[in-house]
Amino acid sequence: MASPRDNADADPAPPDLTLGGYLDRHQRAPAFRGVDDRPYTVDVDTEPAPDGGGHVAFLVFIRWADTGAGIMDHTESRDVARGATAAAAKAAALGLSLYQVKTELDQAIERRRQALEE
C-alpha cells in the first residue's frame, strides 16, 4: 500500500517538522526530553571536514537543569550533514526532521553513557 508521501499531490510536511522549519516558525530552539529523562535544546554547528572536503555539520545538545534555570552540560551528535561551505552544511542539517534530531540526541546520550562506563 502506498503512503500519502508517495503521492506527488500530497500536502508537504508541516513547516515546523524540520529543525530549520521549527526555528523559523517558532523563533526558538526545539526542546526535547532525552533518553536519560533530562531536558535538552539543540543547535547546529559546523567545522571543516576532517578529510579537507568542505564542511560537516553536527548537532549540539544543551542539557538544562530540570528547572530550566541553567545549563548543566552538553553533548554532540556525530556529523549529520556535509556541504561545500559551512553555510551549505548547516542548511543541510537544518533539513533534518525533528524525529531525526531526537534520534541523534538519544544516540549521543548513549555514546556518552558508554564512554563514562569504560
In short:
The chain is α+β, with helices and mostly antiparallel strands. It is 31% helix and 31% strand.
What does this 3D model show about the protein?
It is a single chain. This protein has helices at 19-26, 86-94, 98-117, and strands at 31-33, 39-48, 55-64, 71-83. It has a 4-stranded antiparallel beta sheet. The chain is globular. The chain is built from 3 helices and 4 strands. The chain has one domain (35-117). The N and C termini lie far apart (46 Å). Residues 1-8 have low confidence and may be disordered. The longest helix has 20 residues, at 98-117. Strand 3 and strand 4 (71-83) form a beta hairpin. The chain is α+β, with helices and mostly antiparallel strands.
Task: Jot down its keywords.
single chain; 118 residues; alpha+beta; 4-stranded antiparallel beta sheet; 3 helices; globular; disordered N terminus
Structural class: alpha+beta
* Unreliable stretches covering 5 or more consecutive residues: 1-8
Rounded to the nearest angstrom, the radius of gyration is 16 Å
The helix content is: 25-40%
Characterize the biggest β-sheet: 4 strands, antiparallel
- Helix tally equals 3
User: Strand sequence of the main sheet, in spatial order?
Assistant: 1-2-3-4
Separation of termini? 46 Å
The count of domains is: 1
Give average pLDDT, whole number: 89
SSE order, one letter for each helix or strand: HEEEEHH
Strand content: 25-35%
Query: How many β-strand runs?
Result: 4
Shape: globular
